[in-house]
């Protein structure tokens, strides 16, 4: 029986995930199918989850936080991040009903993408500064990855809404120091971060708050000590404003498509109960699927 995975979110019609996930299933020789569930109805998703042929859910906006309340267990990393993007099922010995477990693989995608492009980062990063642009769910996963995987001792946070930054600072206060950066002048007096992760859309800044975020980010990118930029935005193109500036200043730029691929592989390992990394050939073919889909789709 083909196992089903449902992508639960709204809107998701333009998502690249089905093409990538189904391509990966085929490349890995696994009998699974990834299908959209475009909905805002939690009960509908739960009904799907507990069907015998459904192995789990991929959970995206706007459900990543609220769906934590509807699974039986939440992994430690998801609890720290504060959101889930993956739900899988396990049947404890001696029971008939499966248990649903929520976890987060976005932070794994961040780690694997950075390490693949810049293998020396894990040796260079402990005790250094990191930076995250944005304060949503992706930003929280990025912060967790910088702390857990790269052992950074302080993470700068740049965002257009102060209240959102304050919430992130408080959320992570028990484990890592988050420093909001709110002006170019402040940025000029700070150590350049080794890793910058941008989680915001690639749009022309219009409001003063948006312009401030762009100017602060650019200030760090134009210093004389280039590091590594992970640009999470990849639609409609990976060639974003931030990426172009970073490349001209000799920063190593990692496209967000890498995060999507690697976090998707981590999801599959939960759904299919695997504990393995795919071969480099499989990852390369997954990249081909992504870029072909981006080229041929109206995104």
Compile the SSE list and pairings.
Blueprint: E1 3-9, H1 17-27, E2 32-38, H2 42-49, E3 54-59, E4 73-74, H3 76-81, E5 86-90, E6 99-103, H4 106-117, H5 121-124, E7 129-133, H6 137-148, E8 154-158, H7 162-172, E9 177-180, H8 184-188, E10 195-198, H9 208-221, E11 228-231, H10 241-248, E12 252-255, H11 256-271, H12 280-296
Parallel strand pairs: 1-2, 1-3, 4-6, 7-8, 7-10, 8-9, 10-11, 11-12
Antiparallel strand pairs: 3-5, 5-6
Organism: Trichomonascus ciferrii
Domain Shikimate dehydrogenase substrate binding N-terminal: 7-87
Protein name: Shikimate dehydrogenase substrate binding N-terminal domain-containing protein
Your description of this structure?
The chain is of the alpha/beta class and 299 residues long. It folds into 2 domains: 3-103 and 257-297, Leucine Dehydrogenase, chain A, domain 1 (Rossmann fold, 3-Layer(aba) Sandwich), CATH 3.40.50; 108-254, NAD(P)-binding Rossmann-like Domain (Rossmann fold, 3-Layer(aba) Sandwich). 41% of the residues lie in helices and 19% in strands. The chain has 12 helices and 12 strands. Helix 10 links the parallel strand 11 (228-231) and strand 12 (252-255). Helix 1 packs across helix 11, helix 4 (106-117) packs across helix 6 and helix 4 crosses helix 11 (256-271). The longest helix is centred in the C-terminal third of the chain and has 17 residues, at 280-296. The chain is globular. The model has no long low-confidence stretch (mean pLDDT 94). This is Shikimate dehydrogenase substrate binding N-terminal domain-containing protein. It comes from Trichomonascus ciferrii. Residues 7-87 form the Shikimate dehydrogenase substrate binding N-terminal domain. GO terms for molecular function: shikimate 3-dehydrogenase (NADP+) activity.
């Amino acid at each position: 029986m083909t196992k089903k995975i449902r992508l639960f979110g709204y809107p998701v019609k333009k998502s690249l995930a089905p093409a990538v996930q189904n391509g990966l299933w085929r490349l890995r020789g696994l009998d699974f199918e990834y299908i959209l569930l475009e909905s805002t109805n939690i009960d509908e998703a739960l009904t799907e989850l507990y069907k015998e042929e459904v192995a789990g859910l991929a959970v995206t906006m706007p459900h990543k936080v609220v769906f934590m309340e509807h699974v039986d267990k939440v992994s430690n990393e998801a609890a720290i991040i504060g959101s889930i993007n993956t739900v899988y099922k396990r049947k404890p010995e001696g029971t008939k009903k499966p248990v649903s477990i929520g976890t987060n693989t976005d932070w794994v995608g961040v780690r694997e993408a950075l390490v693949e492009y810049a293998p020396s980062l894990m040796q260079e990063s402990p005790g250094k500064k990191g930076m995250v642009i944005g304060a949503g769910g992706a930003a929280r996963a990025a912060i967790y990855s910088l702390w857990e995987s790269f052992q950074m001792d302080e993470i700068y946070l740049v965002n257009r809404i102060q209240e959102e930054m304050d919430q992130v600072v408080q959320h992570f206060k028990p484990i890592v120091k988050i420093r909001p950066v709110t002006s170019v002048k402040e940025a000029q007096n700070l150590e350049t971060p080794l890793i910058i992760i941008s989680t915001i859309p690639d749009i022309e800044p219009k409001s003063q708050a948006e312009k401030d975020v762009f100017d602060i980010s650019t200030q760090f990118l134009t210093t004389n000590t280039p590091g590594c930029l992970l640009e999470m935005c990849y639609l409609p193109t990976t060639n974003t404003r931030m990426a172009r500036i970073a490349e001209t200043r000799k920063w190593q730029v990692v496209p967000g498509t890498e995060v999507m691929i690697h976090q998707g592989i981590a999801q599959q390992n939960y759904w299919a109960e695997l504990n393995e990394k795919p071969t480099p050939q499989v990852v390369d073919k997954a990249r081909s699927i992504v870029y072909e889909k981006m080229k041929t789709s109206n995104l």
